[in-house]
Amino acid sequence: MQSINTAITAFRRSPLLSALSITTIAFSLFAFGLFGLVALNIRDALQRVSERVEIRAFVADGTAMEKIATVSDEISKFPEVSRVDVVTPEQALERARKEMGEFSDVFEAGFLPASIDVRLKDGFRDPATVKKVADRLREYEMVDDIRFGEEWIAQLYKLRNIAGVAGAALGLAFAAVAIIIIGATIRMAVLARAREISIMRLVGATDGFIRRPFLVEGAIKGVLGGVLALLLTFFAMKLLEQYLHLETAFFDRRLATLGILFGALMGLLGSLVSVGRHLRQI
Amino acid sequence: MIRFSAVTKIYPRAVAGSAALHDVSFHVNKGEFVFLTGPSGAGKSTILKLLYMDERPTSGEVRISGYTSKTLKRRDIPKLRRRLGIVFQDFRLLEDRTAEGNVAFALEVIGTPKQHIPNKVARALTQVGLASKATAYPKELSGGEQQRVAFARALVNDPFVLIADEPTGNLDDRATRGIFQLLREINASGTAVLMATHNLELVRSSDFRCIELNHGSIVFDSADVPTVDIEAD
């Protein structure tokens, strides 16, 4: 309790330095937050694209619709499958005309075969699983041909892996920069109170007693910096949406709370390192 | 109570072969008043730093009221310092606290119960003759008065020894006499005093024991028993 009072008193005694610390922490976390937002949106975009992974099994001409319906029922029970759609030749023609736009006239009725379109569950859209399911579909006698964009899926997964590794590396780098900046900021607060610390030492205060208010101060600064960074990130996103007409996702409540806790943790660690170093030096 | 046994102190960044203290031995009895004199760099402040364990001897041993430099752990140093009173030439007061705030600070940081603090602070300020200026900030006080606040802060925990490093170094003659009178009173109440000073007039004006240092060695001890152990407590 006394540590909290001391920390609050420290805020009151040097409001300018405290405001500067919080702003610095906020901006370093803001950079981290912007990066997080970009990573989140890339992940969402890749997720949306991967949802479009589809295996199309073309059915031989003349196959009865009842038989197609029975097989599609069977397929829908595969553990990897989330949805199965039967597309009649008429529907296929309509879809092709719609997709091709000005070239819609080149398709004639009866030209396209019926198909069974299979979508896979999340977690089963990697190239190997897609191929495995496609091979099973090929085993049906009525299936004439299978299309699932093998190369496209491989490229998509490669991109996803690169995005994952680059995201983790950049995230770590941003976090390291945030920790260094926060540590330096807290060090300023420690140095501003160096005289007080040396007197505390002389009159017999323990290192733990000296350290505690700084830890509380660091955590409070981290939380306030985190909240400010979250607001800055939110307004930055709104600006982007307004001027670039982009539809972006923002952190959900869980991620936002985690971000603020991350700020508090950084403040705490920064204080621990800075005060520890100072106490060892004097 | 305080014993230096063959203490040598060489600072890590010192010029090779130059010791801040060289084979220093002496003993201070309970309630004794001792002046440490000598030119700048003679080793006076080093002796005081060794006493409150801000430094450790390179060789030899410092014993102070049951604590020894050989075995005292870093985490136990605060326990020792709570039993010492320390004052410096530059007062070391917190500018944003009043006189009573500065004295109370010494109690707050060692976890003294809140309800006991006002009485102890008032008693210490009365002891140093500053009860009427309890609510004044350091910048509103003269140098002599600021040093008295520092003394009150040093005395508020009832130390068994007062360590004063050039306490009159920044004061005029009148304030110096006032502070010295205060030191006599503190000593008369049973607290031992170890005072480092350049002021030989002050030393000559009293019959207290004087240890003179030069180049890190004791060159004179008015008790004339620099290496004999007389354990009194």
Briefly summarize what is shown:
The complex is a heterodimer of chains A (282) and B (233). Chain A is an alpha+beta fold.
Main attributes of the structure:
heterodimer; A: 282 residues; alpha+beta; Alpha-Beta Plaits; 2 domains; 4-stranded antiparallel sheet; 9 helices; 4 strands; elongated; B: 233 residues; alpha/beta; Rossmann fold; 6-stranded mixed sheet; 10 strands
Present the secondary structure layout.
The complex is a heterodimer of chains A (282) and B (233).
Chain A: H1 2-13, H2 15-51, E1 54-59, H3 65-76, E2 81-87, H4 89-100, E3 115-120, H5 127-138, E4 143-147, H6 150-192, H7 194-202, H8 207-244, H9 253-281
Antiparallel strand pairs in A: 1-3, 1-4, 2-3
Helix pairs in contact in A: 1-8, 2-6, 2-8, 6-9, 8-9
Chain B: E1 2-9, E2 21-28, E3 33-37, H1 44-51, E4 59-64, E5 67-68, H2 77-81, E6 84-88, H3 99-108, H4 117-127, H5 143-155, E7 161-165, H6 173-188, E8 192-196, H7 200-204, E9 209-214, E10 217-221
Parallel strand pairs in B: 3-8, 3-9, 6-7, 7-8
Antiparallel strand pairs in B: 1-2, 1-4, 4-5, 9-10
Helix pairs in contact in B: 3-4, 3-5, 4-5, 5-6
**Could you report the average pLDDT of chain B, rounded to the nearest whole number?**
91
Q: Total domains of chain A, how many?
A: 2
Q: What share of the residues of chain A lie within helices?
A: over 70%
Relevant CATH superfamily of the largest domain in chain B? P-loop containing nucleotide triphosphate hydrolases
Biggest interface between protein chains, with counts per chain?
A: A-B, 16 and 19 residues
Order of helices and strands of chain A: HHEHEHEHEHHHH
The tally of domains of chain B stands at: 2
Distance between the termini of chain A: 26 Å
List the strand order in the largest sheet of chain A.
2-3-1-4
Annotation field: number of helices of chain A: 9
Silhouette of chain B:
globular
> Spans of chain A with pLDDT under 50 lasting ≥5 residues?
none
- Which structural class matches the secondary elements of chain B? alpha/beta
The radius of gyration over CA of chain A amounts to 30 Å
Estimate the global geometry of chain A from the Cα principal axes: elongated
- Count the beta strands of chain A: 4
Average pLDDT across residues of chain A?
85
Mind telling me the C-alpha Rg of chain B? Answer: 18 Å
Instruction: Report helical residue fraction of chain B.
Output: 25-40%
H/E series of chain B: EEEHEEHEHHHEHEHEE
